[in-house]
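Possible regression after last week's pipeline update?

I re-ran a chain I had predicted before the update to compare outputs. Posting the input and the new output here so someone can diff against the archived version. Not blocking, just want to make sure nothing changed silently.
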Amino acid sequence: MDLKQRKPASSGNHEAEPTKESKSTTNKKGTSEGTLWKYLKYTSLLCVGLSLVFLSSPLDAENLEWIKDVPLEGQFAVEHQITADKSMAMGGAECVAEDDDRNIYTGLHNGNIIKIHPHHLTGRIGEGEQEIFFKSHFPSAPKADQEATHGRPLGLRIRKNKLYVMDAIYGIYTVDLQTREATFLLQIDDVTPHLMIPDDMDITADGKTIYFTDASSRFAIGRAIYTFLEGKCTGRLFRYDVATKRAEIIKSEMCFSNGVQLNEDETVLVVAETLARRVNYFRLPDFQLLNQIYLPTMPDNVRRSGKNNFWIASCGILDDKTKFLDSHPILRRLVAGIIPYSVLHRATEVKHSLLIKTDDLGNILKTYHDADNANVFATAHASDLSDGRVALGTFMGQQLVITKLED
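New output (post-update):
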């Protein structure tokens, strides 16, 4: 008897063992299905994540392709250079005002208003003692930016022994040049909706009327970059009656309304729109638009030069990166939702300072450039000094510059 285990006879319906080829096909199919599932899973997670970022973003960004691209040629060609006769280390010294005694005043990022005396021997403007003239800090006053611990003086004017201050945190107040006592004219909640970035102002010769701008109705000065990333035109131009203390909206839906300046006989009001890269010349008293000039850079403050000419300070050319972001509002919204504001602020690049002199009808008379930030950085202000030189201020930079511009 054969004691060896015999293999059972194979039956006709017994399943055949899978071949190597069929195993390979099955494995490939499984691998493909697994890869597809992973792709769908991660894509879904990415879409959900981006959707959450999109919805939580502080911006409701708009397309900005409508902004005119003005080349640096013709009347804007780079010919005359900005030089620096004197440079003083001061953070964010945007605006400059001079009194009858040749003292100049400027407001800084830290809320201080600095008074710079003339040289005690030569009398040269801007070369004497520097002192803190006033600290912008009003603990009980309403604030445009709830995170701010002090004010941010922007526009400055001097009338009849008083320094008028347009403060981006608190509104409009005056400081007596002798006693240094401050008096509010307009606080940020005196208008509806309340002021978010009180920016600049000019005052009629009789002191009865103040024209001023509120750059944005959406974001305060501590989040100003969001205004440019979002692209909404929510700025306003106001007329304030000093006697009645009433502020009236003259123009709305302005694209970051900024610098304000009257001509000598107060028949023209010039108003800059920084986001739109344009400057408006309005006829008074009916506010008919006389002219509108578009710039290759972003205009900031406007100041009178001589009788009826104007300095327009500007910076920031419209480069390829800016054009790309302008045409992609969804991307700008996502960027603001992902990247902290502090990082965005540090990463902001400003190239090319440009000073423009025009007449009171907006005809361009001359331009001055600093393409490489060699002498000035992010110029935001230009005003004549009584010695014939020009003071150049900056919102983002760290230097106050006094220069002698060639004719």
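Follow-up from reviewer: compared with the archived run. Confidence is low (pLDDT under 50) at residues 1-16. Marking as no regression found.
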